[in-house]
Amino acid sequence: MHTSTEGALPLLRLLHLVSPSLPVGGFTYSQGIEWAVENGWIRDADDLEAWMAHQLRSALPDLDLPLLVRMQAATLERDQAVMSGWVDILLAGRETAELRREESDRGRALADLIIAWGLEDALAWKPQLARSQTAGFAFAAASWRIEPRDAATGYAWSWLENLVLAGIKLVPLGQTRGQQTLARLATLIPSAVVAALEVADEEIGTSTPALAIASSAHETQYTRLFRS
């Protein structure tokens, strides 16, 4: 019996896209966790899990993931103006200079990588993609025919893995305890994706005051392991 490899390719592309080996710098950011640890907000694995779970239940399904799906649709429709509008909304939702800078710095790195991969029209789309790593992720997912639900799941996993690994270094946690935390938090991703797919355009947006405070304070933290 002959089996087709065509159906497996989008999955492999998604695994490539969420790989921590990609040179887009996600592992160099803690999104406020570093300051939260220093200030005593996050003291152990339970605190880290609660911190991340809150964002998985609010920030991601209300902002990042709905916009990712819409950016993927804009790519398929070849509508750069619509993509640019969604990027504007995403950047407006990044509540600190640090978070906006991370979005754009990683966006530029991913845009260059997408062009190096030779994805169709990537160079023409660079002005939009370089503003937001979420836009670049969506562009690559659309180009590789990754289903929006799968793309959102992969995006959420990549975000979660990077930040839990940051927490393992900062709290610090043992590798086993950290991986247990990651495994429990991963169970929240499917429901976050389902919720994100049901968000209407006018409902997109969120506010995470604790994250904003921690990120703002991290911008001027005296000693840092992670970028600000």
Concise overview:
The chain is mainly alpha-helical and 228 residues long. It has helices at 9-18, 33-38, 45-57, 59-76, 80-93, 97-117, 122-129, 133-143, 148-170, 175-186, 189-197, 209-218. The radius of gyration is 17 Å and the shape is globular.
Describe the structure.
With 228 residues, the chain is mainly α. It is built from 12 helices and no strands. The longest helix has 23 residues, at 148-170. The radius of gyration is 17 Å and the shape is globular. The model has no long low-confidence stretch (mean pLDDT 93).
Strands, helices and their partners?
Blueprint (H helix, E strand, L loop, with lengths): L8 H10 L14 H6 L6 H13 L1 H18 L3 H14 L3 H21 L4 H8 L3 H11 L4 H23 L4 H12 L2 H9 L11 H10 L10
Helix pairs in contact: 1-9, 3-4, 3-9, 3-10, 4-5, 4-8, 4-9, 4-11, 6-7, 6-8, 9-10, 9-11
Keywords, please?
single chain, 228 residues, mainly alpha, 68% helix, 0% strand, globular
Total beta strands: 0
| Number of helical segments with 4 or more residues | 12
The end-to-end span amounts to 54 Å
Order of helices and strands: HHHHHHHHHHHH
- Computed CA radius of gyration, to the nearest angstrom: 17 Å
As an assembly, this protein is single chain
- Summing up helix and strand content along with how strands pair, one would put the structural category as mainly alpha
Residues in helices, as a percent range: 55-70%
Rounded average pLDDT = 93
